[in-house]
Write the C-alpha cells for this entry.
Amino acid sequence: MNAKIIGTGWELPAYEADNDYLSTIMETSDEWITERTGIRKRHLAKEETTTSLAAGAAGKALKASGLKAEQIDLLIVATITSDTETPSTACRVQAELGAVNAVAFDINAACSGFLYAIHTADAFIKSGIYKNVLLVGAETLSKLVDWTDRSTCVLFGDGAGAAVLTAAEQGGVTAQAIGSDGSRWEVLSCMGRSNHNPICQEQAEAGFLQMNGQEVFKFAIKTVPQCIEEALKQAGISPEEVTCFLLHQANKRIIQSVAKRLKQPEDKFPMNIDQCANTSAASLPILLAQMDEQGRLHPGDRLVLSGFGAGLTWGACVLEW
Ligand code: ACO
C-alpha cells in the first residue's frame, strides 16, 4: 500500500506585509529583497496562531478528502513554532477538528518538516498500522525571527498547509530520499529557554532564529538536486518524466539553481515565494494545496516534493497524483 493524497487545504494570516512596508521599519528595500530572494510580500499573524492556522488548513483538507474527522488514524503537525511547548500543536488541532480516534504528535524538522511527515505517514501506512493520515505544516515564524536583523527577518512568513493521505494500491508516494546532518546544527538555529533551576547561575534570554545565509544557500543547491536524483532513481524515472517539482520556497535563486542542475525548464518549478515568503514547514503543503485548488494537478501527474532546512535536514519524495 502507498500513501496517496486525497485532499489538501491552506490558510494564511489576513495581514500582508510587502517589502515596501518593511523598508519603512528597517534599512532594506524592495529591490534588495526581490533581487536576492524573489520575495515580494509575506503574511504575518496578528490574531492567528500556529494552532488556528493549522486547524484552518487541516479542516479544509479534511473536507476536500471526503473523510470524517473520526476516520483519521494519525495526525502529524510539522512545526518549529508550536504555540505551546507542551502539548503539541497536533493535539490541539485534534481537539479543534474532533479527530477523536487519531494519534497526534508534532515533528520538528524545520523546513523539511512536511517531507519528514510524509516519510512517517508512508511508513505507518505501508506497515498497515494506520490507514488515514492528516499531515499539516504550520508556522508563525514571525515570532521567532529577530525583527532588528534585516538579513533574516525579511525572508520569513506565517501560514499553514495540510494534506490527507490514505492507503492506496496504486499511485501515491513511490520513492523517498531523506537525511539529517546534526553536526552542522549551528548553521541555522534558534536557542530555546535556558535552564532556570535553583543551581543555575546564568540566565540567558530565549533566542531568535539565526542563520548563516550563505552556508544554507551552498548546502541547499548541492543537497537538494542530490536527494531528488536519489528519489528519482529509486522510482525508476528520469527528471524529464516528472510533471513538476515542488521545492521548499526559501529563495527563488535556489530553485533556479536546482532547475539548472537537473537540466529541467524553470516552468516545471512552480513558485509562490513572491506571495508567501519562506513559511518553513508550511511552504510545501501551501504550494501543493494552492496548485490543487487552481486545478493544476491531474490524475497520473508525477510530482517531486523536496525541502531542506535547519538540522541540517533534507528530503525528497516522488508521488503520483
Ligand atoms: N536589505 C538590504 N541589505 C541587506 C539585507 C536586507 N534585508 N540583508 C542583508 N543585507 C546586506 C548585508 O548587510 C550585506 O551588506 P555588506 O555587503 O555591506 O556587508 C549585503 O546585503 C550582502 O549580504 P549577504 O548576506 O552576503 O547577501 P546574500 O547575497 O548572501 O543573500 C540571503 C542573503 C538572501 C539570506 C541568501 O544567503 C540566502 O537566501 N540564503 C539561503 C537562506 C535559506 O534558504 N534559508 C532557508 C532555510 S530556513 C529554515 O530552515 C527555518
